[in-house]
Write a structure and sequence with these properties.
- This is SLC13 family permease.
- It is a multi-pass membrane protein.
- GO terms for molecular function: monoatomic cation transmembrane transporter activity.
- Its main location: membrane.
- The chain is α+β, with helices and mostly antiparallel strands.
- The chain folds into three domains: 346 residues, no CATH class; 66 residues, Regulator of K+ conductance, C-terminal domain (Alpha-Beta Plaits, 2-Layer Sandwich); 77 residues, 2-Layer Sandwich (Alpha-Beta Plaits).
- The chain contains 25 helices and nine strands.
- The strands form two sheets. The protein has a five-stranded antiparallel β-sheet with strand order 3-2-4-1-5, covered by helices on one side.
- Helix 1 runs antiparallel to helix 2, helix 3 runs antiparallel to helix 8 and helix 21 runs antiparallel to helix 25.
- It is elongated.
- The two termini are 31 Å apart.
Length: 594
């Protein structure tokens, strides 16, 4: 072993130990390792930041933006609307929701698909009395196996493809992963259809700040546009469309005010409705029923042409000028350049028009304004903004455009017209330029810690390969596996990746283990493709912990899970993958060198 190899192993080994220790954030460890590598001379300065321009980072970032745009479009909710009411028990919900999440993961990145499905799943669980703990983890596992089936479904596939590009001169194609990934997905869904019973029922889910804020019941004011048509036109129909989560407080028709209207009361174009409900339920009903917020169309003050319109929540402070006054009396729009979209008052149902409600200290307002104008307006009005979170109330949604752009990008990439990075980057730019996603939402979807982790770990992991360390490890492994059947060697490689992922993060695992798999295949005289596929499958299948993949972390709180619950459901599935996947890979990607 040379000094350069020893230092490379020491750097990567120390990085791995820091990952396992968990004392610091993954991204901080990665950039710290990068800094040490540069200062020590292990990583040349000219290549130190090459990871930030690497195709891997571009593809992952673009996939996240596209997932956010599809989620924002609401197309999945629309497509699922006829199906969800038929799912009454955990026995039907667990496999069906897991299967839908898996299929979505084949079209968008797996964490995006899970985030897309979770609100509908949680609402369905509440309405049917099924514990969320019985359905969320199967959905997470479904997203993981579904993501294995396409190049952009999960980060390990993207990174393995890039490793193949650098080593063999050609990346994996978009659907090269499909035969193995689709078969494993079917097997996993069949397992989850019965194994969900291993999960605890009745756990109390953790409540995060977003959920706590979303629990506020707001009153908002909407208008029925001319030419409006809905499936039915009665008050009860609107309530059913919102799953009884929104109440019609009053109907204002000309000078007539109809308080607490009967469910059979007809709604007519030109009516003004006062609706009460949680922010998400109100937004979904407004979009679904094609209603129009009364004040949302009024112009707001924009300091710059590039400003974006934002909607924020703010609480009225004890010294606020709003106390005892109305929005109409203060001329909020004319004086401050903001629109009042909703009001929440604890323990009291507001039944008047928004413009005439007399404000009290502690009221929570939903205000619309220009992004540069809002902070000053809030300060002048004596309102304190609540925790930063996405607030949607009646925003315009492009139902089909993001899905069409995503489908077009996948087709062009699959046909070889565009490289993966170029195709998905162009699609991400297009959804923003077309207005399907705002720039602020695009930035929020990027998952900076994950991108920084990947970008920093690329040059760090390269130190082992460039120093000859991967050849050294491959020589040791080939000696250890000497005389073993190639299929067993392939299984061992997959097991290494699967066991390392919970501690290293799947992206870091692939960056470290994939070059070793290539070296091992070369030493044994076998084809490198099966070993790269084995690393991708192993790194993409973290069913044992809540920390190895963002999908598992995403369901931890809402499902009320404990650390050991993941292994309870995931250990048998991991064993099934290890028993079945290597044989599938060897069938599709023969082990014999070409």
């Amino acid at each position: 072993m040379t000094l350069q190899q020893g230092l490379s192993f020491a750097l990567v080994g120390a990085t791995v130990l820091c990952f396992v220790w968990g004392r610091w954030r993954y991204d901080l460890i990665a950039v710290g390792a990068l800094a040490v590598g540069v200062v020590s001379g292990l990583i040349p300065l000219k290549s130190a930041f090459s990871g930030f321009s690497n195709d891997i980072v571009i593809i992952i970032a673009s996939a996240l933006v596209l997932s956010a745009a599809v989620s924002r479009s609401g197309i999945v909710d629309t497509l699922m609307a006829p199906l969800l009411p038929r799912l009454k028990t955990a026995r039907s919900q667990a496999p069906v929701l897991a299967a839908i999440t898996a299929v979505l993961s084949m079209a968008t990145k797996n964490v995006g698909a899970l985030a897309l499905m979770m609100p509908s799943a949680l609402r369905l669980a509440r309405n049917t009395g099924v514990p969320a703990s019985r359905i969320l983890m199967p959905m997470s596992f479904g997203s993981l196996v579904g993501g294995l089936a396409v190049l952009v479904g999960t980060s390990p596939n993207i990174i393995v493809s890039e490793v193949r590009q650098e080593a063999l001169g050609k990346p994996f194609a978009m659907f090269d992963f499909m035969p193995v990934g689709a078969a494993l997905t079917v097997m996993a869904i069949a397992y989850l259809a019965f194994a969900y019973r291993l999960l605890p029922a009745g756990r109390t889910a953790a409540v995060d700040i977003d959920a706590a804020l979303a629990a506020n019941a707001y009153v908002t004011e909407v208008e029925i546009p001319d030419g409006w048509s809905f499936e039915q036109d009665r008050v009860g129909d609107l309530k059913r469309a919102a799953d009884e989560a929104v109440a019609v407080v009053a109907i204002l028709r000309g000078r007539e005010r109809i308080a607490s209207p009967h469910v059979n009361r007809k709604i007519q174009p030109g009516d003004v409705l006062l609706l009460e409900g949680q922010q998400q339920a109100l937004n979904e009903l407004i979009v679904k029923a094609r209603l129009r917020l009364s004040d949302a169309s009024r112009p707001v003050v924009m300091d710059e042409p590039t400003d974006e319109v934002r909607v924020v929540e703010a609480v009225i402070g004890a010294e606020s000028d709003l106390i005892g006054k109305t929005a109409r009396g203060l001329a909020l729009n004319e004086t401050y350049g903001v629109n009042l979209l909703g009001v929440s008052r604890a323990g009291y149902r507001l039944a008047g028009r928004l413009a005439t409600i007399r404000m009290k200290a502690g009221d929570i307002l939903v205000l619309q304004g220009g992004e540069q104008q809002l902070p000053g307006a809030l300060q002048t009005l004596g309102c304190l903004p609540l925790a930063e979170r996405e607030v949607r109330l009646g925003g315009v949604r492009h139902a089909l455009l993001p899905a069409a752009i995503l489908a077009g990008a996948m087709i062009l990439v699959a046909l070889g017209v565009l490289p993966v990075a170029a195709g998905f980057f162009a699609a991400a730019v297009l959804v923003v330029a077309a207005g399907a996603l705002r720039m602020r939402e695009a930035y929020a979807s990027l998952e900076g810690p994950v991108l920084v982790l990947v970008a920093a770990m690329i040059p760090v992991s390269d130190t082992i390969q460039k120093s000859g360390g991967t050849d050294l490890i491959a020589a040791w492994l080939s000696g250890a596996f000497d005389g073993l059947p190639p299929l067993l060697t392939l299984t061992a490689m997959m097991a290494v990746a699967m066991l390392a992922t919970p501690f290293l993060n799947n992206a870091a695992t692939v960056l470290i283990v994939a070059p070793i798999g290539l070296g091992l295949a070369e030493r044994l005289g076998l084809s490198p493709d099966p070993f790269l596929m084995a690393v991708a499958v192993g790194a993409g299948c973290d069913f044992l912990t809540p920390v190895g993949h963002q999908c598992n972390t995403l369901v931890l709180g809402p499902g009320g899970y404990r650390f050991g619950d993941y292994a309870r459901l995931g250990a048998p599935l991991s064993l099934l993958i290890l028993l079945v996947a290597p044989a599938l890979i060897a069938l599709v990607w023969p082990l014999a060198a070409r």
